[in-house]
Structures are given as structure tokens and as C-alpha cells.
């Protein structure tokens, strides 16, 4: 048994961590995340050059990673630096394209950092239900046309190509009949906006928008790539929580009230201990999910829902408690901690909250 | 035991409702209901309308311009105002300083300052916390040194809510370093326009400018602005902190916010049904509703105890503060949760009056996540909930 990353993976994580520490400190991050673009092409190119995008894909598609623990190693570092660049959308869209096959040229550009992807699947009414797709795909000449609305797509304005789910048959809620299509950003109507935790997102309005078919049987790919997305979010959350923990411990050691460091007060000691314990439980959940990503569907999905449930529950606790233990200063924009707390909270709103995933975990158990 | 309000009190409730229907500007109520930003002018306008009716200083004694309400009437007013989406009365002048001046101020101070609080001439802010004095408030360092007919003030206050609007600040200052730290504190009224006063904004995690730092450099304050006796300020400070018991639990505000949450939960959908019918979410709502119902009665019990002559025990006030803020925070947390992915977009301008853009997602989504983050302050300010817990056990254990 070995709970350390492999040597190659650790080297990549160290390189990435060093780059972010030196070139992407919190003030740089906040400037980028609040800018009109909400991301930095310069950093994206540099990170692609370091191999960070390539680590998310397998060798069969020109990458050198792509396993659950590759995703883990990368996103843990991204979390520690609150990176807003479109890694999650690139991972999810790229992974689905890789599994669909026949997209080697496009994925080559993605890994090189020259083409960016977004994954537009959720809809205003779907609330984390992966089969609730109302967007319709119809044949138009040799190709396809899509009509519908995709909701809160991360960094969609940054993307050159958007992977969009749309129904070729059946009714919303049915897993069968959901296709996957590529849409060029130039042909789509986007409405971009800032996100509360930094960076940008957007709504995608499709009105007979031309699209290229990837597959007419997209649901298994969607489910699998959302699992990878959840592994990524779980590890991003672990990275965020480690920063929150370190910052809070530092504050408990140095902030003095009543003549002593506030860490001397048992009330705060016990709360800090609980937060630290829960973070370790969350890390274990993230390890379990990364390990299960390449296993059979049933094992994978249970572990992934368990992880997202845990991250959602622990994330809220860690964010709220770290602000509380900092007192007023924890409420300020100036303190990096508040941005980490916001990001951690919003991870709970991506790809399903803890209620959604405990429900799913129960349902998957019943099906077994 | 009889939990009913008397017929007279119910008649009073109708009177409050009628007043709110007739006088509360729809424009302002709409902002409160939809979570938009209130301007200083909005707040001043509402204070003025209340004052016209004699309800602004509603817990001042009749002799000083108060309406002479019972605690039940004050509670009814709080709840009805909140349910009608009236702005909360900004407490610093009318609810905090007013009672201190009435109890401890000189006749000249009462004659001068109280009318100016009532008619809105002065906007007051509070100079209590300092960077090194938060939960340990008595360790404050801002110094006032007597120099002829003036005090010369040097130091820094922080977390000064709406200090950017203020004409005046009431400050706890150190006038002695002898003896216990509580015994060298005085209560001073300082004009914000005095040379040497500087206000710097603190931006909170939701991007809002709500609190400030206030710096004092050789600020000369006339000695007649000392309230009560020198070095007795801690007594007045504590009196001020425990005064507004009715507001501590925030019951009215939580009732209105909970109603809003239930509406959202009914309109959001999960698995083809209203979110409010999702077993997990329904259980969260039910637990919260029960806690709120219990709190309503706890609040009335505390009010009843303080109204019948005996003041409510300190630990009961602390309990109201803890659970009242926890309930409000849980409401904001569930409201955020209810939005699902649409909690993430945040267009700050959408919270300004006159914003014409289309909503992103449901029209109630815009302020929700920011409101959740902003309300993390509830368990920190006004004596953190940790400090409140110490108050409770200290009173009970008598160790």
C-alpha cells in the first residue's frame, strides 16, 4: 500500500505548485479573476507548456496521464492557488471527446494550449440531474442544428469549441437519446458574467445553431466525464481546505486577545480539531474517488457520489469555521482566506451538492 | 399561561400594518424584498417617516419623544415591519447612543443631541472595536489626553459600520492606564469633520463597502462631549451593548427571510417536483422552521421577563443572540443551496436601483450567494457567539 503519488506525478505537482506560487500569487489571481476576460491566456499557455493540460489526458490521445490520480495531482495544486483558468471544462469536454474517439487532432491542439474547450451540459431546470436534457438536436442538411439553453457554463467565453449535450430522441429525464455535439463559439450566442468566487461563466443560447455530431449515445460519456469532473473538484477542494487550515492555524497561533494567543482557548482548539479531522475524511473521500475513476461504472459512481457528498458537507464546515475563527478579518476582501472560503462554498454548487449526491449514493446502492 | 396577545395588542398590530401599508414607500420595500442595496437617502427617508409618526425612537421613554410602547408592542412592530419589508432602523444613534444619553448624559447633552438624532440631523456611527481589541474589547488603546478644554484623541477604530455616512461617532477611549483595564475607559462623542479624523473603507468578501477603519490623529474634542464621568465609560458601554434586547434575536427579519426561502423552494424543481417536496430539502426546511418557531417563543419569554420590571438575565440575551444569528445564517445557507448552480453568477450592478439587465437564472437569484457570505458576520459581531457562550456558562456556573 502506498498513499504517495508516483514520482512522475509528484514531480509535475511540484513543478505546477512552484509555478503558481511564484507567478500566480493571490493578488495576481484576484486581478485575473476580476478582469473583463476572467482568465489569463498567458498563464494558460505557460501551464500547457509545463504539461499541466497533457497530464489530464491519456497517452492514446497525446497526453501522458488521464488517470484519477493524475487529475488529483493537478487539481489539488490548482485549488491551493485558486486558479480560475478553464481546466475543469477542458478536462470534462476533452475527456468525453477522447472517449468518443476520432478527435486526436483537436485534442492535440487542446493539449498544446492553443484550443480551449467548455462543457455545456446543465440546463436551467436540470438541477444536477444528468439526464434532464431539454435541448433538442435536429438534422440540418449534412449536419445538425441545436436549440435550447445551457446554464452556468464555466469559462464558456474562453472556449473556442463547446461540447454540448442535446436530445436526438426521447424525453427529458431519459438517459437514452442524449447526443453530444461540438459547437463553434463563433456560431453561438453567449451571455457571460462574473462568478461570486472569481472567474466567469455564461449562459449558452442555442437557436438552430449549427453543430457537429460526436455521438448519438452520449449519456455514458457524460456520466463518466462528470465523474472525472467531480474527482477534479474534490481535489481542488482538498487543496483549498489545506490552505484554509494553514491560515486558520496561523491565526490561532498569532492573534492575541486577553493577553494570550486565541489558540489557547479550548473552545477554539476543539473546533479546529474537528475541522482538521473532517478535512482528513474529505481527503480520504477524494482518494477513494480518484482510485475508482478507472473502475467499473457502479464502483466509480458510488465512490464519486460519496466524495462529492463529503466535500460538500465538509467544505461548508471548513469555509464557515475558518471565517468564524478569524473573526472580522475573515470577512474581508483583503484577506486571501475569504476568497478560498468562497471558492470552497461554490464547489458545492458544481456538479451536484451534498443532498443530490447522498440521494444518488442511496439510489446506486439500491440498484446493486 | 396564555400565549395570546391581548385584544389591545392585536389592535395595535392592525395599526402598525395600516401605517406600513400607507407610509412605507413601495420603492424601498421592493428593494428590501429583492435584496437590493439601500442608499443613505433610502434609510434617512424611512427614519423620517417613522419619526413623523413618533415611532422612530420606539424604545425611548415618552418624556424624550418615545411612543411609550410595552415590550409586546415593540416586538409586534419589529415583526410587522420586517414582514412588510421595511428597512431595519439603523441602530447607532437612535437605539444605541440615545438610551445611553438618556440614562447617563448631562441635561445639556440630552437637549442638544437627542432632537438631532430624532430629526436625522446627525448620522451616528460606533467607535468600539480596534484592530487589537475585538472580543477583548476592554483592551482598547485609542487614547484621549486632557489638554485644557479639550481631549486630544489618537488611535484607530475598526469595523465602523456605515461610518462613511456618519456626521458623528461615539467612541470608547482610554483616559487612564492605571488599575484594571475596564476602569480607564471613557465615552466620548466626536465630530467626524474634526481635523485629524480619517475614514478608510474596508471591502468585505462580497465586495461591499459596509464597514470602515477610522483613524484619529491629534483630534481635539471639546470636554463637554464626554458622556458621564471620566473612566466610567465601560459601564455605559455595557449598558449600550445589552440595551436592545428586542433586536438581538432578529425574529422578524428571520420570519420574512424564511417565507422568502419557502417561496424559492416551491418554485425550484428537483427531479420533476418542487424542491420543497424533496425529502432531504424538506427535512432541512422543517428543522429550520421548528427552530424558528421555538425562537419566537423564547424571544417573547425574554421580552416578557424584562417587561415585568425585572430585567432579563444576561444569559438569556446571549442565548437569543446565538440562536437568532444561527437561524438567520441557516436561512441564508438554505436559500443559497436552493438555487443550485445559479448561486454562482454574481453581477454586482444587478443589486443597484434602476438596473435593467435580464436576471441570470431565476429573478430572485442575484443577491443570494452574496447575502449568505455577508451574513457570516452575524456570528462574529455584537460580541462573537463564542463570547456569548462564555457569558452563558459564566452566569450559570458561578465558578
UniProtKB/TrEMBL annotation, chain A:
<dbReference type="InterPro" id="IPR036250">
    <property type="entry name" value="AcylCo_DH-like_C"/>
</dbReference>
<keyword id="KW-0560">Oxidoreductase</keyword>
<protein>
    <submittedName>
        <fullName>Acyl-CoA dehydrogenase family protein</fullName>
    </submittedName>
</protein>
<dbReference type="GO" id="GO:0050660">
    <property type="term" value="F:flavin adenine dinucleotide binding"/>
</dbReference>
<feature type="domain" description="Acyl-CoA dehydrogenase/oxidase C-terminal">
    <location>
        <begin position="217"/>
        <end position="343"/>
    </location>
</feature>
<comment type="similarity">
    <text>Belongs to the acyl-CoA dehydrogenase family.</text>
</comment>
<dbReference type="InterPro" id="IPR009075">
    <property type="entry name" value="AcylCo_DH/oxidase_C"/>
</dbReference>
<dbReference type="InterPro" id="IPR013786">
    <property type="entry name" value="AcylCoA_DH/ox_N"/>
</dbReference>
<dbReference type="Pfam" id="PF00441">
    <property type="entry name" value="Acyl-CoA_dh_1"/>
</dbReference>
<dbReference type="InterPro" id="IPR037069">
    <property type="entry name" value="AcylCoA_DH/ox_N_sf"/>
</dbReference>
<dbReference type="Pfam" id="PF02771">
    <property type="entry name" value="Acyl-CoA_dh_N"/>
</dbReference>
<feature type="domain" description="Acyl-CoA oxidase/dehydrogenase middle">
    <location>
        <begin position="118"/>
        <end position="189"/>
    </location>
</feature>
<dbReference type="InterPro" id="IPR046373">
    <property type="entry name" value="Acyl-CoA_Oxase/DH_mid-dom_sf"/>
</dbReference>
<keyword id="KW-0274">FAD</keyword>
<keyword id="KW-0285">Flavoprotein</keyword>
<dbReference type="GO" id="GO:0003995">
    <property type="term" value="F:acyl-CoA dehydrogenase activity"/>
</dbReference>
<feature type="domain" description="Acyl-CoA dehydrogenase/oxidase N-terminal">
    <location>
        <begin position="6"/>
        <end position="104"/>
    </location>
</feature>
<dbReference type="Pfam" id="PF02770">
    <property type="entry name" value="Acyl-CoA_dh_M"/>
</dbReference>
<dbReference type="InterPro" id="IPR006091">
    <property type="entry name" value="Acyl-CoA_Oxase/DH_mid-dom"/>
</dbReference>
<dbReference type="InterPro" id="IPR009100">
    <property type="entry name" value="AcylCoA_DH/oxidase_NM_dom_sf"/>
</dbReference>
TrEMBL record, chain B:
<dbReference type="InterPro" id="IPR009075">
    <property type="entry name" value="AcylCo_DH/oxidase_C"/>
</dbReference>
<feature type="domain" description="Acyl-CoA dehydrogenase/oxidase N-terminal">
    <location>
        <begin position="6"/>
        <end position="120"/>
    </location>
</feature>
<dbReference type="Pfam" id="PF02771">
    <property type="entry name" value="Acyl-CoA_dh_N"/>
</dbReference>
<dbReference type="InterPro" id="IPR046373">
    <property type="entry name" value="Acyl-CoA_Oxase/DH_mid-dom_sf"/>
</dbReference>
<feature type="domain" description="Acyl-CoA dehydrogenase/oxidase C-terminal">
    <location>
        <begin position="231"/>
        <end position="397"/>
    </location>
</feature>
<dbReference type="InterPro" id="IPR036250">
    <property type="entry name" value="AcylCo_DH-like_C"/>
</dbReference>
<dbReference type="GO" id="GO:0016627">
    <property type="term" value="F:oxidoreductase activity, acting on the CH-CH group of donors"/>
</dbReference>
<dbReference type="InterPro" id="IPR013786">
    <property type="entry name" value="AcylCoA_DH/ox_N"/>
</dbReference>
<keyword id="KW-0560">Oxidoreductase</keyword>
<keyword id="KW-0285">Flavoprotein</keyword>
<dbReference type="InterPro" id="IPR037069">
    <property type="entry name" value="AcylCoA_DH/ox_N_sf"/>
</dbReference>
<comment type="similarity">
    <text>Belongs to the acyl-CoA dehydrogenase family.</text>
</comment>
<feature type="domain" description="Acyl-CoA oxidase/dehydrogenase middle">
    <location>
        <begin position="125"/>
        <end position="219"/>
    </location>
</feature>
<dbReference type="InterPro" id="IPR006091">
    <property type="entry name" value="Acyl-CoA_Oxase/DH_mid-dom"/>
</dbReference>
<dbReference type="InterPro" id="IPR009100">
    <property type="entry name" value="AcylCoA_DH/oxidase_NM_dom_sf"/>
</dbReference>
<dbReference type="Pfam" id="PF02770">
    <property type="entry name" value="Acyl-CoA_dh_M"/>
</dbReference>
<dbReference type="GO" id="GO:0050660">
    <property type="term" value="F:flavin adenine dinucleotide binding"/>
</dbReference>
<dbReference type="Pfam" id="PF00441">
    <property type="entry name" value="Acyl-CoA_dh_1"/>
</dbReference>
<keyword id="KW-0274">FAD</keyword>
<dbReference type="InterPro" id="IPR052161">
    <property type="entry name" value="Mycobact_Acyl-CoA_DH"/>
</dbReference>
<protein>
    <submittedName>
        <fullName>Acyl-CoA dehydrogenase family protein</fullName>
    </submittedName>
</protein>
<dbReference type="GO" id="GO:0005886">
    <property type="term" value="C:plasma membrane"/>
</dbReference>
Amino acid at each position: 500500500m502506498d498513499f504517495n503519488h508516483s514520482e512522475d506525478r509528484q514531480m509535475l505537482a511540484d513543478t505546477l505548485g512552484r509555478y503558481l506560487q511564484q507567478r500566480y500569487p493571490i493578488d495576481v489571481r484576484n486581478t485575473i479573476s476580476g478582469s473583463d476576460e476572467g482568465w489569463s491566456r498567458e498563464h494558460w499557455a505557460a501551464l500547457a507548456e509545463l504539461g499541466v493540460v497533457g497530464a489530464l489526458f491519456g497517452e492514446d490521445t497525446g497526453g501522458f496521464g488521464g488517470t484519477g490520480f493524475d487529475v488529483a495531482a493537478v487539481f489539488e495544486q490548482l485549488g491551493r492557488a485558486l486558479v480560475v483558468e478553464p481546466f475543469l471544462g477542458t478536462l470534462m469536454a476533452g475527456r468525453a471527446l477522447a472517449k468518443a474517439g476520432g478527435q486526436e487532432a483537436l485534442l492535440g491542439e487542446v493539449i498544446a494550449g492553443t484550443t480551449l474547450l467548455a462543457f455545456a451540459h446543465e440546463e436551467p431546470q436540470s438541477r444536477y440531474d444528468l439526464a434532464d436534457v431539454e435541448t433538442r438536436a435536429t438534422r440540418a442538411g449534412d449536419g445538425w442544428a441545436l436549440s435550447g439553453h445551457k446554464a452556468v457554463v464555466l469559462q464558456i467565453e474562453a472556449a473556442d469549441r463547446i461540447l454540448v449535450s442535446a436530445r436526438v430522441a426521447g424525453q427529458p429525464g431519459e438517459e437514452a437519446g442524449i447526443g453530444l455535439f461540438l459547437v463553434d463559439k463563433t456560431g453561438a450566442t453567449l451571455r457571460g458574467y462574473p462568478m461570486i468566487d472569481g472567474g466567469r461563466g455564461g449562459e449558452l443560447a442555442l437557436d438552430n445553431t449549427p453543430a457537429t455530431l460526436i455521438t448519438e449515445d452520449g449519456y455514458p460519456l457524460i456520466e463518466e466525464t462528470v465523474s472525472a469532473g467531480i474527482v477534479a473538484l474534490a481535489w481542488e477542494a482538498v487543496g483549498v481546505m489545506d490552505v484554509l487550515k494553514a491560515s486558520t492555524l496561523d491565526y490561532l497561533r498569532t492573534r492575541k486577545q486577553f493577553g494570550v494567543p486565541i489558540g489557547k482557548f479550548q473552545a477554539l482548539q476543539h473546533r479546529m480539531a474537528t475541522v482538521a479531522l473532517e478535512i482528513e475524511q474529505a481527503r480520504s473521500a477524494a482518494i477513494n474517488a480518484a482510485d475508482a475513476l478507472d473502475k467499473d461504472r457502479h464502483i466509480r459512481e458510488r465512490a464519486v457520489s460519496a466524495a462529492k457528498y463529503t466535500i460538500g458537507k465538509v467544505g461548508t464546515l471548513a469555509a464557515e469555521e475558518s471565517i468564524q475563527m478569524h473573526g472580522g478579518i475573515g470577512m474581508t476582501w483583503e484577506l486571501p482566506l475569504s476568497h478560498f472560503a468562497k471558492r470552497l462554498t461554490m464547489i458545492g454548487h458544481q456538479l451536484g451538492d451534498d443532498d443530490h449526491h447522498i440521494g444518488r449514493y442511496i439510489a446506486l446502492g439500491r440498484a446493486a | 399561561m396564555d400565549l395570546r396577545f391581548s385584544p389591545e395588542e392585536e389592535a395595535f398590530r392592525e395599526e402598525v400594518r395600516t401605517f406600513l401599508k400607507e407610509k412605507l414607500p413601495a420603492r424601498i420595500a421592493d428593494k428590501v424584498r429583492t435584496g437590493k442595496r439601500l442608499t443613505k437617502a433610502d434609510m434617512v427617508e424611512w427614519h423620517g417617516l417613522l419619526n413623523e409618526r413618533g415611532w422612530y425612537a420606539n424604545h425611548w421613554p415618552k418624556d424624550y419623544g418615545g411612543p411609550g410602547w410595552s415590550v409586546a408592542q415593540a416586538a409586534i412592530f419589529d415583526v410587522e415591519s420586517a414582514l412588510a419589508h421595511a428597512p431595519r432602523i439603523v441602530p447607532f444613534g437612535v437605539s444605541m447612543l440615545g438610551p445611553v444619553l438618556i440614562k447617563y448624559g448631562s441635561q445639556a447633552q440630552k437637549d442638544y443631541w437627542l432632537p438631532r438624532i430624532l430629526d436625522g440631523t446627525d448620522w451616528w456611527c460606533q467607535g468600539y472595536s480596534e484592530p487589537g481589541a475585538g472580543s477583548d474589547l476592554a483592551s482598547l488603546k485609542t487614547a484621549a489626553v486632557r489638554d485644557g478644554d479639550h481631549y486630544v484623541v489618537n488611535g484607530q477604530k475598526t469595523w465602523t459600520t456605515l461610518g462613511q455616512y456618519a456626521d458623528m461617532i461615539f467612541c470608547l477611549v482610554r483616559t487612564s492606564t492605571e488599575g484594571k483595564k475596564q476602569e480607564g475607559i471613557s465615552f466620548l462623542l466626536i465630530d467626524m469633520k474634526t481635523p485629524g479624523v480619517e475614514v478608510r473603507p474596508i471591502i468585505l468578501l462580497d465586495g461591499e463597502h459596509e464597514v470602515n477603519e477610522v483613524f484619529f490623529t491629534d483630534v481635539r474634542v471639546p470636554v463637554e462631549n464626554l458622556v458621564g464621568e471620566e473612566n466610567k465609560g465601560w459601564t455605559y458601554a455595557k449598558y449600550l451593548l445589552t440595551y436592545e434586547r428586542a433586536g438581538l434575536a432578529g425574529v422578524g427579519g428571520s420570519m420574512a427571510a424564511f417565507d422568502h426561502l419557502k417561496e424559492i423552494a416551491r418554485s425550484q424543481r428537483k427531479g420533476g417536483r418542487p424542491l420543497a417536496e424533496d425529502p432531504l430539502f424538506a427535512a432541512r426546511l422543517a428543522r429550520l422552521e421548528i427552530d424558528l418557531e421555538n425562537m419566537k417563543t423564547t424571544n417573547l419569554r425574554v421580552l416578557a421577563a424584562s417587561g415585568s420590571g425585572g430585567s432579563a438575565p444576561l444569559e438569556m440575551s446571549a442565548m437569543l443572540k446565538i440562536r437568532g444569528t444561527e437561524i438567520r445564517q441557516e436561512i441564508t445557507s438554505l436559500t443559497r443551496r436552493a438555487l443550485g448552480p445559479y448561486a454562482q453568477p454574481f453581477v454586482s450592478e444587478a443589486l443597484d436601483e434602476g438596473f435593467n439587465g435580464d436576471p441570470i437564472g431565476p429573478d430572485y437569484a442575484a443577491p443570494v450567494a452574496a447575502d449568505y457570505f455577508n451574513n457570516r458576520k452575524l456570528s462574529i459581531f455584537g460580541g462573537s457567539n463564542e463570547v456569548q457562550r462564555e457569558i452563558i456558562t459564566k452566569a450559570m456556573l458561578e465558578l
